[in-house]
Design brief:
The structure holds 2 protein chains of 2 kinds. By secondary structure, chain A is an alpha+beta fold. Chain A is built from 6 helices and 14 strands. Chain B is mostly helical. The chains are: A alpha+beta, B mainly alpha.
Chain lengths: ~260, ~40
């Protein structure tokens, strides 16, 4: 799915959506679909990049998380995020067009309201433009996420929080207008959304010495048991991401199975 | 909006260490400490 600059939605009266996005699912037979020629002409390179990131970056991170949890099998998460299995992992190519000072003021400088992502991990490949913020440890303030040269910005998302019963916390983040010295710049980004295999049940992992030790091994919320990764992603996509809802401290949406998604100012 | 920015405190992992002897252990320890200390990632 994609949207171009010509298909803008009105975010607030007179203020239009300023992002162009194009999503590319995994290059596996079940998920084959037509793409515009600019994609098909570069398909080999894009696929090579996508598989490399999945196997050599995401794969390593998933092993590290399994080790952090002291799971008996360090490949536990790896085997539930196989590239060739059906999942909603996808690349997203993005362009945020810059806004005028007047538009930014009308939006309180917030382009995408605070939220968590649906899957396991989100990888962000970015230009050195400051626009991403995460919630501070105090649970109230917002801090900028620094774009280090040659680095990938990674955040933990909902599914890993479900799988670890809250030990790993889904990162609350938002997109704001860049600081004044970068305010005139269009920002390009590539994201890789990592989701577990569709069939994986989002229940806390068993056999984690760390979860047991810290008391995270009891399922506190029975409603989450039995929802698969595929169902969670579908349900959250159906509800959409709240871009510019009326101002409220925390807005909450019921998603599925007693779990809800929150949006943060 | 300020020109001096408040940067978030986040963990930086050098994944090139992963395949080196003891690399996985070292990175996992670094990640575990970040999770504990920062409280969020």
């Amino acid at each position: 799915m994609h949207k171009t600059h010509n298909e803008l939605q009105e975010v607030k009266p007179g203020i239009y959506d300023n992002t162009e996005i194009y999503n590319i699912p995994k290059f596996i037979p079940e998920l084959e679909r037509p793409h515009p020629s600019v994609i098909t002409e570069h398909r080999a390179e894009i696929e090579r990049f996508a598989r490399h990131i999945h196997d050599h970056v995401v794969g390593k991170l998933l092993v590290l998380f399994a080790r952090v949890l002291e799971l008996p099998d360090e490949a536990y998460f790896l085997h539930r995020h196989r590239y060739d299995a059906r999942s909603d992992c996808h690349l997203r190519y993005m362009k945020y067009h810059h806004r005028t000072p007047q538009q930014n003021q009308a939006l309180d400088n917030v382009w995408v309201k605070g939220h968590t992502d649906f899957g396991s991990l989100t990888l962000l490949f970015r230009q050195p433009v400051a626009a991403l913020q995460v919630r501070g440890p105090d649970g109230e303030s917002w801090r900028w996420v620094r774009p280090h040269p040659g680095s990938i910005t990674v955040n933990i998302a909902d599914s890993l929080e479900f799988l670890t019963n809250g030990f790993l916390k889904s990162s609350i983040h938002r997109v704001v207008a860049p600081p004044p010295d970068q305010a005139g710049v269009d920002r390009l980004g590539v994201l890789y959304f990592v989701r577990p295999e569709d069939s994986l049940e989002l229940r806390p992992v068993a056999d984690s010495a760390v979860l047991a030790r810290l008391g995270y091994d009891q399922t506190t919320d029975g409603a989450a048991v039995g929802i698969t990764a595929g169902e969670w992603v579908k349900a959250r996509v159906a509800k959409g991401v709240a871009k510019q809802k009326p101002r409220s401290e925390v807005a909450e949406q019921d998603i599925i199975g007693g779990k809800s998604a929150k949006y943060y100012d | 909006m300020r020109n001096s920015v408040d940067w978030a405190e986040l963990a930086t992992l050098d994944l090139s260490q992963f395949d080196q002897p003891g690399g996985k252990e070292k990175l996992a320890k670094q990640l575990a400490e970040a999770i504990e200390k920062i409280g969020m990632t």
